[in-house]
Amino acid sequence: MVLPFRFEPRPKPSPVMVYLSPLMALAATGVLALVLFAAMGLDPVSALVVFVTAPFADLYSIGEIFIKAAPLILIAVGLAVGFRAGVWNIGAEGQLTVGVIAGGALALTYGSTGSGLLLPAMVVAGAIGGFLWAAIPAFLRTRFNANEILVSLMLNYVAALWLSYLIFGPWRDPAGFNFPQSEPLAPAALFPIIVEGTRLNASVFIALAAVILGWLVMARSFVGFQLDVTGMAGSAARFAGFSTRRMVWIGMLAGGVAAGIAGVGEIAGPLGQIFPTASPGYGYTAIIVAFLGRLNPIGILFAGLLMSLLYMSGDAAQMLLGMPSSTTALFQGTLFFLLLACDVLINYRIRYVPGVRVRQEAAT
Amino acid sequence: MTDAIVSMLVVTLVAGTPLLYAALGELVTERSGVLNLGVEGTMLTGGIAGFIVTFITGNVWLGVGAAMLAGAAMSLLFAIITISLKANQVAAGLALTIFGTGLSSFAGKEYVGRSVVLEPSSLTTALGQVPVVGVLLGKLHPLVWLSWILLAAVCYFVYRTRSGLILRSIGESPSSAYAIGFPVISIRYLATLFGGAMAGIGGAYVSVIYAALWTEGLTAGRGWIAVALVVFATWRPERVLLGAYLFGGVTSMQLFAQGAGFPVPPELMSATPYLATILVLVLISRDAALIRLNVPVSLGKPFHADA
Asked: What's the domain range around B241?
């Protein structure tokens, strides 16, 4: 099979395509969504309208956009630090879960004191929890050469089982009618609401701070430069004397700290108590957000908001259109896949090569 | 006593089989230089495809065939993106797993909690009559011992055939293989499709035979453990057998310890396969020279024919 099209390497990566590719992927996902809606017997256009407008229905919904985007942005900025250096931390979900455990332990123990220090202490505890959980793959990678992708991923399952043990065991609310959930967290353990009538709380400022800090580190610091060189040309980084081990530690721990804080943001924010499942997969979705945002904090800000909209549209589609809850995950996966496909255009251009015909003409 | 040993052995073999299929497939893929981290998503997709077809037709083998096709289709997506469009293989593998997890939940929504009931086939019953080994074989689904035949075939293919040599040479140095005139791209496609089909069988084995029911995320990380097993096996097929049954043994001990009423939280028991994976990875990877000697040199790197 000879197609009349060829991928031709560009002399240098196209800066336009870097930003166009996510939009192309989004458009293609939208088209596939229309096909899927039609295949499910829905009117595709009105289904798409539900999908696009539902997140903006009222003030409460708009608050939800930000409250869902905050953990995604926070984690994605942390992960991007590692991804830039070619350090693959796939364990954000587990690091988030351990952040929930660490912050939750403080909230349940000291909630009755009503101290103003409790919430900051929870955030620090969550950061340390995520830090320590990410330190395991970092240590095993730098000391024993063990693959950080597989180790960090395995630890996601372990962390989930740990939290599940706590909620089904010692942390179960005695007054909770035997539901697997902790007692509601004390008011002192909750982020203050910043817009009345929504669940929007002060934790969004942490995500914003992460974007600024992430931008400073990546674009304006020597460490950021070292991370980039390590990711783009490992041997060049070694020749320059940049320690690969240090990059692994920085890369893993940035993700761990961010995910741990995001975990606290969930229980001290929209959840208000602790459940056996720490998040709707924010740790995995943040990987997509990081790539969709081009591993750039400003890009991640927009990508996180977009992915948050997708979560909300998925919920709306479930309630209004009776679609399965997994629709969100399906679209997220599709978007990620199409993004990677469109990214080929950064380094290659498509050229029409009417090869066969030209040769025939030349022969005659 | 014999009964206890036989049943422990049966559990070990049964629990190890899906890992054996998935890891053997991934091993062939990786030997061609392609790192497919989407095994988990592929297994889930194969698992639901196999489950639905078996549920509707009542025929396991049709289910297994559907799972192979579904697995191959998933890995075809991966191959297009990584081999033809030269995307980063790690990112594409993650995308495949996220996509497969969503797709399998989406497709399996109507089947959550449903189960399939399988009658032992006449073949299994006949094998049960064979002296000595019959005690074991009579309790095992044919897919268990078919995996041994597959293992032998993969070993023979990789080590003893010309095609196997070409596969290995492409994994080591695709540009040299290309210069000699071997079709690097096509062979990488085929190796990736084989890996996907095997992961599909592994997934169907979990959903149709091992669990005999469907829930979301049924494979629970087995695809990732299979990827780890390939490292553990230092990319040698015969060692995959050891690794897979080692994990089968861990599962078996877990179940028997639970049955014997050891005072250990069930969550800790459930965490053992994941902790064991980390332990095994550390033990094998600490010898950096061993890994460097055995890993296909081009693993994870895209190949440019024009370079």
From this structure: 2-294
